[in-house]
Structures are given as structure tokens and as C-alpha cells.
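Might you be able to check the C-alpha cells below? Thank you kindly.
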Amino acid sequence: MLGAIVAVCVAVYLVHSLSWPLVNDAVLLRYATFLRQHHFAPYREILDYNLPGSYFADWLVVHTLGASALAWRVYDLSLLAISCAAMYRMVRRYDRFAGFYAAAGFALFHARNGIAQAGQRDLAMAALILAGAAILLDRTGKSSVGASFFFGLCIGAAATIKPTAIFALPLVLLARLEKEETRDALGVRARPGRIVAAALAGMLIAPMAALLWLHHTHSIAAFWMIESQLVPLHERLGYLGFWALFTRIFTAAHGGVALLAIFLMLRCRDAQLDRLRVFLIVGMGAGFLSYFVQAKGYPYHRYLFVAFLFLFAALEFSHALRWPGYRRIVAAGGLVLLAVLGVLSTMRSVRDRWPDEPVQSLTRDLNSLDGEALSGNVQCIDTIDSCLATLYRLRLVQSTGMMYDEFLFVPPDSVKPRQATALTEMRRNFLAELASHPPRVLIVTPWLFPAGPDHYAKLDQWPEFEHFVEGCYEFRMQRDFPSSPREHPGYRLYVRRQTACPLPLQTTSADSLP
């Protein structure tokens, strides 16, 4: 009965979500790909802290499925299908129902995150790690070394999307569940050293390919600056603190699921399951570390943790049903809890809507200013609001590759000296680009991602830019959308004056910073 309920919920989600639009982080990835197609060099000319694996995933979608929103839905659902199939395969020899139930629960957890989190990088990372883990645990007809190499290949590919994937590497030493499986296809004993070496060899392939691509595009130095200076700064901006992060990963529901599963594990001892239990717990630990290192507490940062949590919990609940008395009652309660979570997640996904009014409004305003002729002559001062989504919908190329205004408006005297140097140089270069070829249209959104301030107060944090805009541009209009969430509240639109633009004021020298 419970299995039928979650299966229906998954079917409802799959059908309903096919019409979801391309939004949020997916637009950022897609627009970066779009700029590269128009000869912008990655990292050198496109300010983007996503790793090369994220670029490759989007490039693969565009060149196999197309550039439509439906293509992105197919990609998202394909990642989900890989994850669910891997979860089922990991535990099928012990309990097929537990594998199905955990996979369905994970699919509905993804459904709960809604339109904004479709095709997220953490889902791609989780799909690769789960696929590699499934091969480790189910190696019929395969050698331990070969399975370890494949697992390492998956970890390496995942690490080119999110480097926190390497936290899952210890799983390779925990997958030797039976003595006969420690021998390869020729009957040769696969020692731990050979297994680790095979995993490491596989893990290096994707990062080395990414490094060669960076070398080919002459982007290694720019990439290193972004990853070493800007990414740590991005992690600090909007940091919630340990307790807030902890309560977001262990919500009341997921904390309850984990406690019930741990209780049953201690009360229903089974030597045959112990190694698998350790494997799943270590997988949960890898997801836990990945979530905390990213330091933002976003729902999609929990994917790897939740996948292993649901596997662990469903296995314990299903196993405990075979035991008499209170253990069976607790197990039934745990399964009911997972089903309730699935139903609530489905209801939330069905009700989810994405505000399209800002994009439609900006589309109309840009079309009134010559539309397609603005390609190469328009610039967003934005990160995740409606601006870049509109430019992509109209297939308009920005004047510059600046896609993250969160870095432009951070006061340099509030960060570390090396970061201040990078930010000051970034400001100087961006203003120089604007001054040398001022775009006809400038679009400024009110909120500074991810921590604020709101209501265009970010402009006060960079007076040189505000002075340049006042001298070079005429304020044309401001659109506000009070019904939209904070992340999509509106925009200001400026049009370049006919007179010559003044030279930008000299940005504060990094050498003068404390």
C-alpha cells in the first residue's frame, strides 16, 4: 500500500514537472555556455565560479537535447533516474522493497525543491557518486580493481562539478562485502593498495581533461584566481552559522527519520547487514561534509546526504518488519513517515510556481529599445534575478562577461587583503570595459545576492560605479513587482546619453586598504 502511494506521487511529479521553465542557476549555466558560443573565453572573460564539469554538462545538454526548457527537464529527470536506479541497485540483494522505497523518497525530495532547483549541480554530483557506489556494491562478473577504477572515474567527474565529491572517496575501501569479491576476474587477490590505486587513477582522468581544456583556452591563471579568491568569498557571503546549517540539514522530519533508523539498527542486529550499514553511514557522512563545506544551507546541497539517509532508513525499516513486537511497530511508523513526507513533497511541487512577470516585462522594455539590435550593447548588473534570464530568452549577448554583481559591490575593506586586491582589480577592469564601449542599455536589479542589501542600496557600496552611471546614462524607468519573491522584485533600466561618457573615477587602490 505504501509503495503504491509513493509510486503514484512520483508519477504525478514526473507528469506535472514536464512544463517547468528554465530558471535560476540553470539560466546562469546556460548563459555562460551562450557567451562561450559567442567567443567569450571562460574565466578570463566570463566571471563564473562554476567548475568546468558544470560547463560540460550544459554543453552536453545543448548539443544532444537542445536548448529548450523541455531539454533541461529531460536532463534533470535523467539525473534523477540515474540516482534512483543506483540507489535501488545498491541494496537490491538485501531488500528490493527498501531500494525502491528509498529511491522514490529521494525523487520526491527533489520534487519538493521545486522549479528553482531543477538540474542542480549537486544532483549531478550525487548521481555520479551513487552510480559509482552501486558498481562497487554489485560487481557480479567484474573485478574489484575494475569497479574501483569506475568508481574513481565517477568521483573525478563529480569533482569537476563540485570538489566536495572527493569526500565520498573512502567508500572504495568499504565495499568489499564478501571474501570472494576481493578477487578480480582472474582470481587474483585484489589488495587494498591496488583498489585504492585504481580508484585514484580513475579519479584523475576528468580533472586532467578539465586542466587541458583550461590550458587550451588560456584560462588557468584566471580560473585559479576565481577559485582561490572569489569562491572562498562567495562561501562567506550569506554564511548562516553552524547551528542554522545543522538545523537545515537535520530538519524535524529528516532528524526523526535518522533517529528511528539508528534505533532500529541498534535493536535489530544482523551481521550480514553491518558492512552495508557502515557503507551507507559513511556515504551520509560524505554528504554531510559536502553540505557544510558549501556553507549556504541551500536545499539542493543536501542531495547526497539525503540519498544515503533514505537508503539507510528504508533498509532499516524494511529489515525491522521481520522482527516481532515494538520493533515492527517502529519500522511501520518509519515507513509511514517517509510516505507522508513523499505526499507533502508532491503537493508542494504541484503548487510551485515561478514568477515570470519580471522577465516578460523586461522583454517588452528591451524590445521597445530595438530588441535584437541590443546584442553586444546591453549589460546586466545582476546575479540571479530576471536580467540574465531575459537576455537568454532574447538571445542577447552582454557587453561583458560579468555575471555576478555580488563581487562588484562587496566593500574591499571588509575582506581579506588578497581578496581585496582581486576585487579592486575586478572593479577597475569592469569600469574600464564599460567606459571604453558603453553599452546602450544598462539594467540594474535591486537585491545583491546572496546576503543583500536590498532596494538598490548595493549602489552605495561602490560610489565610483554610481558616479559613472549618473554621468553616462539617463534613468529611463523602474519596474517593481511586489508579488514576486525577494529574489525577483524588479529592475531599473538606464539608456546611454548621446554625450560622451566621463572617465570613471579611480577605484580605491588595494595598496591603501588596511
